[in-house]
Design goal:
The strands form two sheets. A five-stranded parallel sheet has the order 7-6-5-8-9, with helices on one face. Strands 2-1-3-4 form a four-stranded parallel sheet, sandwiched between helices. Strand 3, helix 4 and strand 4 form a beta-alpha-beta unit. The two termini are 17 Å apart. The protein is built from eleven helices and nine strands. It is α/β, with parallel strands linked by helices.
């Protein structure tokens, strides 16, 4: 069976550091990588809407000189006819060298990986995991702050359903001296299993609060998230919570001069567009970093699979 990436802990800290090193080399020397995947094919199977993740995977493969086969929505695939994830994975393995899959059902990419004969990358499964967004975040923090250890990280917004937050906490908890500020409405607090299994088990310092302004001066990184309409059973509940936190230039005055603001995007109202011109706002640089780290990951997985 080919090695796949389902959750961020499938990679060791050493492997993550090596991926960051490769991504930085790609940024510095793009010509060196321009034809390295010539003749190789990436299949992007996206059964849930996506802009950045899907396009960054596709841009990554094209910039490595490879090709892309794309399913951009479930209704355009045999899944609409009732085909199982396992059968889809087996079939697509006949046509592609590597698969990136996003699926609304938690665990679907793991099922795909168990049946595919090529590497499978989880590009997001329900509220569970989004490991390549986490790699994007780690590359961004590393490039912006010059390190991944000893940082105070505020995660703000939807901490209950936010798969990017869960994966980021899991990844950053492996670096020494990290502290977390968990900022959310009571209804969207970090799930107790994430808090117990990761933060408390590793005895990581943390604070749970509803007050963004109160913790802002302590933060090295502020990771904003949107309240996700698609995760709510009640529209009324979504509308009540959707604007719980809105980052504005006024609130940024409380922050350190070198604090960075991150967001996995898409943004709705949680960051005012007036913040975009602040040099500490790095969410669009973060989106660009997503392409480079996915290039590094595709290279790693194809090499390990003996295809490069």
């Amino acid at each position: 069976m080919s090695r796949s990436l389902i959750r961020i802990t499938d990679l060791s800290v050493k492997e993550i550091d090596e991926l960051i090193e490769t991504a930085n080399d790609i940024i510095a020397n793009p010509a060196k990588y321009a034809e390295i995947c010539h003749g190789k094919k990436l299949a992007t199977l996206f059964f849930e809407p996506s802009t950045r993740t899907r396009l960054s995977f596709e841009a990554a493969m094209y910039e490595l000189g490879g090709y892309v086969l794309s399913v951009s929505e479930g209704q355009s695939s045999s899944a609409a006819k009732g085909e199982s994830v396992a059968d889809t994975a087996r079939t697509v393995s006949c046509y592609a060298d590597i698969i990136a899959m996003r699926h609304p059902k938690e665990g679907a990419p793991l099922v795909a990986a168990q049946h595919a004969t090529v590497p499978v990358i989880n590009a997001g499964d329900g509220g569970h995991n989004h490991p390549t967004q986490t790699l994007t975040d780690l590359l961004t923090i590393s490039r912006e702050k010059g390190k991944l250890d000893g940082l105070t990280i505020g995660v703000c917004g939807d901490l209950k359903f936010g798969r990017t937050v869960h994966s980021l906490i899991e990844a950053m908890s492996r670096y020494p001296g990290v502290r977390f500020m968990l900022i959310s409405p009571e209804e969207l607090k970090l799930p107790s299993y994430v808090k117990k299994d990761i933060i408390q088990r590793k005895r990581i310092e943390y604070k749970q609060t509803t007050d963004l302004e109160g913790v802002m001066p302590a933060l090295d990184v502020l990771y904003m998230t949107r309240v996700q309409r698609e995760r709510f059973l009640s529209e009324e509940e979504y509308l009540r919570l959707k604007d719980s936190y809105i980052l504005t230039p006024e609130k940024m005055r409380w922050a350190k001069e070198d604090m960075i603001v991150m967001h996995p995007l898409p943004r709705v109202n949680e960051i005012s567009v007036a913040v975009d011109d602040d040099p500490r706002a790095c969410y669009f640089r973060q989106a660009l970093n997503g392409k480079y780290i996915r290039m590094a990951l595709i290279l790693k997985m194809l090499k390990e699979d003996g295809k490069l």
